[in-house]
Every structure is written in structure tokens, then in C-alpha cells.
Queue: 2 jobs
Job 1
Amino acid sequence: MKYHPFVIPFSIGLAFVILYIVGMWTFWIIRLSRREQKIVWKRLFSFRTIEAMWESMMEGLFHRKIFKKHALLGYMHMSLAFGWFMLIVLGNFESRLYPHGNINPPFYPIFFEFFRHDLSPLREYEEIFTFLMDFFLLLVISGICLAFFKRIKSRILGMRRTTKHILIDRIALTSLWFIFPLRILAESVTAGLYNTGHFFTNFLGQNVIYNLPLDQLYYPAWWAYSIALGMFFVTLPFSRYMHIPAEILLIFLRKYGVKEKEAHSTFTKIEQSACSRCGICIDSCQLSTDLNINDTQPAYFIRDLRYSQPNERMRETCMMCMRCVEACPVGIEIAAMRRNERREHQIFSSTGYEYLNGHTYPKAKVAFFAGCMGHLTPSVIKSTLKLFDAAGVDYTFIDKDGSICCGRPLQLGGQEKAAKQLIDKNNTLIHNTGAEVLVTTCPICAREFKQNYHLNIPVLHHSQFLLQLANDNKLKINKSELNIAYHDPCELSRGLGITKEPRELLEKVGNVVDPTKQAKNNSLCCGGSLGITNISADQKKAIAASTINQITNSETNVVATACPLCKKTFNSAQDEMPIKDISEILVQNLNHTDSKNPAQVKESKVTVSV
Amino acid sequence: MVDFGFAPIEINIHDLDKADLRLSAWISERDETFKLCIACGSCTATCTAGKFTKFSFREMCHSIRRGEISEAIAESEKCMLCGKCTLACPRNVNTRNIVKLVRKANQNFKV
């Protein structure tokens, strides 16, 4: 016997979900741009495919990234994904090894123990299969227990908050949670009656539920199991669980080089579907941890983007600090998606900046750009220029008499056309200096220059340039006993990947202490972000104070920043801890005897103190 | 009425009873810090756009409060959103947000 009517709900669900997934994959691939399709075809038969397969396995089945974040949370996701996968694979092997000679219908391996009570034809494999099937079922059940527990006490699994789900997610989630307990029930009842299980189901069937009327439970249990499976499959495409098939496609496309563009595209749709709404982004967001704003995080933003349209509050309430991008286990380009969403709602015209004429500055090898925020913190400019003088750098200060904004604040707000005007003006200014390198003290400007200006000269943040000078022995620094907590600015660390140079430079002055894991790519935002306009000054201060609190300890003498905006924000939030730019700390510890221009440096000693 | 020999020049009269304060109300409703501005001019002193033009956040606020809506909108276009004014403001007025709101108002309700 290979059929019973209870397989109908499962079969309908499975047919539906397979057709839907194949349909969606085809639709998405067809809708990719011509260029994207070309690179996919070109790279399909390359090492990238093997890499993508490996990554699909490591992330899809084992959830490696979540494991790194929190072991128990990783185990929960792994046990569900890997456990279920193994049940399907082993079930198929088992049913194929069983001697019968006919082609198996899809439901046969799933309900194998219903159809075959005598497993002895499996011979020596019987013991192995029944054991492994019970083992993986237990693994999945442990995951379900943890998932259930996480809904009540998420902190045990390393999460402050879990995602609030919408109706369709709840239905799918409930079906998923019912699948495995019902499977245990069905298999235990069968094992109680026919001894088909191993240590787990046999024990349950013959020792725990043996007093129940197993005969009468037999068919209802298998019906219920089938209905739960069917229900899950039917709801899967419309719920968060669409991430399972979408993530696999996403991993492959990403490996082939497809990424978010300057506007929403088919790839955005794939990324939206690949978001599992796991909620890891909620905890990584400082709006959530420091301000208790818990409804605009990527899990919700992407959900709204998938089902409807994010409203203005959803679109705007984000610091664009990219901590969520760093935390996302699926690797979704969340910041790019939000930027594109903001771009779709442009509010600034591009005709307002015709007044910009700029200034002219003398030519030199190094062009120094302080930027708007640099001009708000003149001490940073003074110190940097004093270091330049001490090292004998041939520089020209290209925004000495009034800078044009680099355009990044407008970019962060999605006002791309308006930013383009500023970019053009600055491009001319930089070009006219004939400089061979552009140096800026502001990471916001540095990122904009690097990523949106297409300059033909290198752009260096001052920490990189000063390190070069120090390594070339043009700057001699004295080592002191200072305990320095270095704060990585978002735009520098996550935006440009510059985390080593500032630390190396500071190591020449004192001891860099990182008392927290919230450093480098995982660094905290100072709260002063230009990416957000709809939080108040007090809220920004709350974030800044919390950040300072987390990155310092009792031994910290000074907090070093590499961003004038961070310096300003930290200073306005608290008075206890001195906040200094890297250049200011360096100037204080400059070795004057060896420097090339001692006269000027002497002056610097008088005017700058830490 | 006693004739003092002096009279106000018609063009300089801002009659707040007749002024079009829709934009002012619209902004205050969305960002309460708009009401906090005391026109000290710190914003104007640091303004990046102010280096090149007569743009001044302070004056834009005056225009809004006087009901000179089109003037305020025209001024707001000059802002580069760099955020210096927000950091300089001693009253914690969310200046960048207010500039954005003026621009949004221009799109959302035709003034």
C-alpha cells in the first residue's frame, strides 16, 4: 500500500510550494537586467558556483553567522534547518533502500512509517535508519522548544527583542511549530503499535503514551501531521519563510556579482524575500537599544517594502550607521535599500545651488579638505595642519575660506540630484589644485569622495595619511602612558573599512584599549548621524552618552575619535571623559627635537593641549 | 487718530492677523522645536551656504512666522543640509528637519 487519503493536504501544499518557488525564481531571473543576466551566465560554470554552494550549505543549513553571534541562537536555527533537511534526505534514502521496485510518490518517504511497519527488509540498515531518524527528530524538537522559549524569554538566546509578526507569519509559524510535535505523535503512536521507531519514538510509544487508545489515535495523528505540513507549505510563499528559497538564490546571485543598484530593482525584491525577519537587526540598532524605538528597524522596513510601501516615518527613522548591515546573517544590503527608498521620495530640487562659485587655492601636492564638520571643530584643523607642517608636507587647504559641503548629508537623505551639483563643484575645486592626494579629517567627506566622486587621485582619511608620515619617519611621536579608547566612526569603519590605521597611529602615542566587542566593524554610532532628522537633540545625546559609557572603562584617560562630528556629539552629551581627535593627541606627543620644522611645532605646543 | 506726522510704510507692515500661517502651523505640528527658535543667529554664523549667499536659517524662520511662505521655500532650496546649524544651535532646534519640512510642505500641500 502506497496511498492513503491523508496524504492529500501534504501533496497539495507541496505541489503548490514547488510551483510557486520555481515560478518566482524564473520570474526573478528573467527580470534581472541584461547586464546582470550576462554576468550570471558568464560566471555560472566557475569556481564561484562551488563557493555559492558551500555558502548556501554553511548559512542555509548550519547558520554559521548566527552561531558566531550567539551559540544557543545558532543552535536553534541550525537544529531546525539541518535537522529537517536530514529527516527529508534520510527519509528518502530509507524509502529508496526499501525493496519495492516501484517509483516512489513524493509523499511516500515522508509518511514511510505509516506505509511500512515491517522494516526488516532494510536488513542491517534498519537500526541505523531508525536511530538517525529519531536522532534528527529529537534535534528538530529541541530547536522548536528553544524557538518557543525564545518567544517568552528571548534574552536567554542572546536577543533583547524578538520580531513582532504579522498574521500570515503567525499562521506559518504556528503550522511549523505543529509539524514536528505532530510527527512525534504520529510516529510514536505507530511505534507503540508496530515497534517501528528507535530510542525516542519507541520509548514514547511504548512507555509514555501506551495507555492511550493508540488504535483510535493512529489515523487522526497522521492526518493532523499531513495537514500541518500542507498548511505550512501553502503559507510559506507569503510569509517570512519565503526566505528559505529566496536566500539560496540570493547567495548565488551575490557570488556572481549582482548587487543593489542606485534604485530598486528585481534584486531588491529577492533581498526582500530573503529577509527572515529573524530580528537580529532590531538588537543591533541603537534606536532600539538606547531610545526604545522598535518599529522602524530593517525587519519591519523590509517587510513593508515587500507587502506595501514604507511610510515616511519608516523611511526616515534610521541613522544609516549600517550596524544592521553588519549584523544581518543573510547579508542583505539594508542601507542601500533604505537609501533607494529615500531617493524615490526626493524633496530637494537640483536648481538651488547655482550660487556656488567656490574659491581658488594655490597648487600643492596634497589637497587638504576639512569639510563642514571640520570647520565646526577648528582644533582638529589646527592640529592636523601643525602635524603637516612638522612633517614638511606640501599642502593646500582647499576649503579654508568656506567649504562647499561634500554632498554626503544630501546623499544620506536620498537627495542625489542635489548632491550631484555639490559634487561637480568640489570636483572642479580639487582638480584645479593639481594635487596628487586628497586628505580629509572627516570620514563623512572621505567616504563621499571615495565612492561618489570618481577622482583620479587617492583619497585618504587623515589617520591614514598621518600613519604614512609616521611610518616614513617624517613625524616622530613620543609614546606616553595614556590609555586611549578609540571610537570607530561609522563612515570610517563600516563605510570605508578603515579600522587598523587609526589604532596603529594611536599605538605610537599610548595604549589603545577596546573594552568592548562594539569596536571596528561592529562599532557604535555616536548618535550625531546626518542620516536621520526626526530624532531630537536629547535623543541624540542619549545615544552618545550610552556609546561613551560602553567604550570606556575606569582606566580610560581619553577617548580618541577620527570624526569631527563624533567629537562634537560626544562632547555635547557628557563632560567626564575628554574627547580628542587623533590629530590632537598626536600633536601633544610630537617629538619636537626630531621634527623638520621645530619653530612651528613649538607654537603648536603652546596652543594645543589635551 | 492723533496725527504725529509719521505713518508706517505700508510695505513694511506685517499684519499677523492676516498672515498666512499655514506653513508655520504645519511645521510646528511636525517638529515642536520650531517654536524654540529665539533667532539668536548661531545657525547663520556657521552656515555653509551662508558663506556664498544671504541664506540664513534664522531669516527663513522669520519668513515662515510672517507668512511669507514662498520666500521661505525659495530660501530653503539653498541649504546643503550639512547639519552645522543643528550642532551650533543653543536651543536644540532641529534645523535640518525644519528645512526638510519646508521642502516637504512645498510638495505635500501647495502653498
Job 2
Amino acid sequence: MGTSKVNFRLPTRLIEKADVAAKITHKNLTELVTEALREYLAEIEDEAFQEAVVELYLDDQIGFEVLKEFIGRQDAESVRASKTLLDHGGELADDLAEL
Amino acid sequence: MLVADTSALVSLATVDLLPPVLAEFDVQTTETVIAELEGTVEYDDPAEDAARRVLRHREHLTVHTVDDPRFESSRIDIGEGSCAVLARDEAVDFLLTDDLRALPELQPLVAVRAAISSIVVNALVNRGAITRCEARMKLEEMADARDWLEAPIYRRAQRLFEDEPLGSE
């Protein structure tokens, strides 16, 4: 899994506590933040969250690779195939109506 | 000609759209699908009512026997596999399925185009069999009956009819 450098501000008190926690657990700050973020994402990723992620993909606000990270490859492929049908829905419906 | 699998027939029956679909289109399916529907009725399945409604319309469906479904995987069940075989017939225009999880694996197996029931709803509007307002309501009902992966797809399909406020007509 690749990594990316990010730059953001955190409250000073939180950083101080995290530094202490890092010392006690023998982890560096990156490991600590990564672990905390993973746990947070696992906690909020209920069905309503997943549904919202699918909606972001349908709105072209996130790409397939990000969708896959959240809902898994197989389900992401299902959403992608369905989106393709939806994107051509009018045309398919016209052809179907002409049968 | 359309080949419809269990998921599509149940989905259309759930929102009472099977009669207009069967009136407007030549819909064909397989004995395997009929057996799946009979099993659904027998085993107190959540789709029991809809399956029973499909079976009541059986005489309006052309049912084929497919001896060797061939296609089966973790996502394609035996009924869908039998429809994929039937859809290889050159007279077939569309394979109709509402199993979105099977869709990516089903599409490459058949030379015909795949469609989901939202597209059939749209085609019914084009043929004047239902109104745009009815189409929106049916798609909303379909979305309500779906899980987190499928519901957004059916809700999104309503956008084609967004200029029609619910309750109009």
C-alpha cells in the first residue's frame, strides 16, 4: 500500500497527548494517527455510510479506486456496471421500447 | 425478446409492474427460474408475495428448459446461469436482471445487452404504458426494497423523471 504526505493542523493539546501515547506504546505519531483513523473509519462505515459512498461515485465525485477502497472490489465492480447501464439508460430504454 | 431472471421478475412484481411488462414485451425465462420462484414461495422468503404474483402470470411467460446452465459462480446462481445460456439465442434482444452483484459477471457471458428493471420502467413510459409520475413512484418503491448497494442505483434512475413532481397526473 502506497503512502502520501499530508499537511494538516491539529490542536496542540491533542498532539501533546498523542506524543505521550506514542512514547508509552512505542509507536511513532504516524502509526498512531493511522491506527486511530482506521478504527474511526471502521466504526462509521455502516450501511448508510456505504450507500453515501456509492452516491458520491454515481455523482462522479470519487473514482472507482476510492470506491473500491470503501466497499471492496466485487461490490465496486457491481456499482460500476450498474452506473454504466444508468448512464446509457435513456438510449437502452429507447431501444427496448422499440421492440 | 427479453430473457428475464428471477431477480428481475420478482422486482417488477414487487411494484406491480409485471402485467404491463408482459403485455408490452415478449418475456422469456427458464424452468430453473420457475423452480427458484416456486422455492421462494415454499420457504417463507421475504420475496414470497412477489414470487407468487410472478407464478400467477406464468402463462404469459415463455418458459424454456436449459439442460446445462454451465455458468455458475459465487455471484451467478443457477437461475441466472440458465438465463445467460438462453440469452445466447440470437433472437434475444436483452437480458433482464436486477441482481446487480451478478451483473459484472453476467454481462461478458452474453452477446446481448443487459438491462435492469429501471430501464424497463423507462421503456414502459416511452411506450405510453405508464406515466412519468408512475415511473418515479415505482422506482422509489424499488429503491426502498433494496439494500445499500442497490438502492442508490434505483434512486438515481428517477432523475430521468425529475421534472414530474410526485402526485401529479
